[in-house]
Amino acid sequence: MGIEAGLYARYLGYSVVIYEQREVASHVRACGHLRLFSPFHQLRSTLGLAALRAQDPDYRPPDETAQLLAQQWVDQYLRPLSRTDLLADEVRCHTRVLAVERPVLPAEEAAADAEPDDNRFRIVVEHAGGPQTQEWADVVIDCTGVYGHPNGCGAGGSLARGECAVRAGIVYGVPDVLGAARVRYAERRVLVVGSGLSAAASIIALVKLAHRAPETRVTWIVSETLEGTTDGPIPVARYARCPEQQRLALAANRHARAGTTQLDVRPGTTVAAIEWDSQAEQYVVQFADAPSPERYDQIIANTGYRADHAVCATLRVAQRPVAGASPGLGEHPAEGTETGQRELRPERLLTPEPNYYILGSKSVGGDGRFLITDGLQQIRDLFGIIGGRRELDLYATVAKLAQ
After folding, report:
1. Of 124, 148, 118, which is closest to residue 19 (Cα–Cα)?
2. Which end of the chain is more exposed for a tag (fewer CB within 10 A), N or C?
3. What value does the mean pLDDT take over residues 268-276?
């Protein structure tokens, strides 16, 4: 979202700086082995393609209907886009934003309805191998996402007792169990925690691994009891607007219902405590209400993610209690219409802090249903707000010019 938002701003003539804590799209590269839910035409913008073709007339994008791996999306679109003339000098990699502040009284000391004396934001940044510096901005667009802040293994996404001490060894994501991480999981006892799409992807891959390495044993725990549903651990209807998400959920549920000795599914179960037995090199896991602990070689935590608002702690960016999503967004930016297209209201992009906006998955607290098309719509609507031209749609304008 940061690259696409910066590109839109540059097309409109704004001065832009894009801070990347690591490399461009580092979180996407971390799951590079996974196939993306959307076809390429829903993963790119018309501005992005125009910038790439202007930079290199020989550029050939992926087929519009291609279902790319995450790494392919980075290699064939995101990274080249970040290196175009419009963005190359604006992207600052290995630069961490420590704080976004106003050079006025902290929020708790200022009247709730008072306007800052200086509308600029002070951005405190830390450069890799260098000193901390401060820079200034009239508008801040937070596209940091949520993938750096996974939920814990305990009930409701909380940390289980002892989890902090063993957190470095737990995988919070979807490992490449059929590829680079195969040795870590083959012929091992593996615990998977979660009931979303990441858990579905992990289970599907682990079941395939178990077919090739028959001594592999997988325990899948979900906190929901599954009473009153025929789906299985993954609520299929939740993902109705995206066929690939629904396909993944259905496949994981089929494995859960198959009842093999290699996959043990336990609904209505939560993790109470985790310890590491250094002699046995195993995790000792205590489930809530279980009489005794169990041992596992590996733990995969697919318990979702939450937004982190620490960088704007002194600003008037009110947080919702549910999953840390930004204010005014409701439980989700919109429900799918009959055509599957979301109806995102521009007003939901506003926060109590003037000129501070949150886009992307962070704006909905990490809801896994958020798609790139939702983010592009947010970008379009946001710059209509910033420029005072609600009808502004550069994506449509560029698409017409390309015809």
Report:
1. 124
2. C
3. 97
Rounded to the nearest 10 degrees, the angle between the axes of helix 2-11 and helix 46-55 is: 70
Q: What is the pTM of this model?
A: 0.87
Q: Is residue 340 located within the same domain as residue 284?
A: no
The neighbouring-strand residues paired with 191 are 219, 299
CATH of residue 217 = 3.50.50.60
- Check whether residue 118 and residue 73 sit in a common domain: yes
Let me know: does 80 contact 88? Beta carbons within 8 Å: no
How far does Cα 119 stand from its chain's mean position?
30
> With contact defined as beta carbons under 8 Å apart, do 217 and 209 qualify?
no
- Give the type of residue at 162: G
Give the single-character DSSP code of 21.
S
Q: Are residues 163 and 111 in the same domain?
A: no
Do 130 and 116 share a structural domain?
A: yes
Which residue bears the tokens 């906006």? 357
Tens of pLDDT, residues 63-99 = 999 999 999 999 999 999 999 999 999 999 999 999 9
Contact predicate 49/72, CB 8 Å: no
For 122, the enclosing helix (H) or strand (E) is strand 121-127
Select from 286, 301, 316 the last residue of a domain: 301
Number of domains in the chain: 2
Nearest C-alpha neighbor of 271 from the set 233, 301, 304, 298 = 301
Domain boundary among 251, 271, 301: 301
Cβ–Cβ under 8 Å, residues 97 and 311: yes
> CA 101, 98, 358 angle in degrees (round to 5)?
65
pLDDT, one tens digit per residue, over 354-363 is 999 999 888 8
Residue type, 280: A
Instruction: Determine how many CB atoms are found less than 10 A away from the CB of residue 257.
Output: 12
- 75 φψ region: left (φ > 0), alpha (ψ -120 to 50), beta (else): alpha
Instruction: Record the tokens describing residue 201, joined without a space.
Output: 């992807």
| Domain region containing 272 | 155-301
Rounded CA-CA distance 376/370 in Å is 11
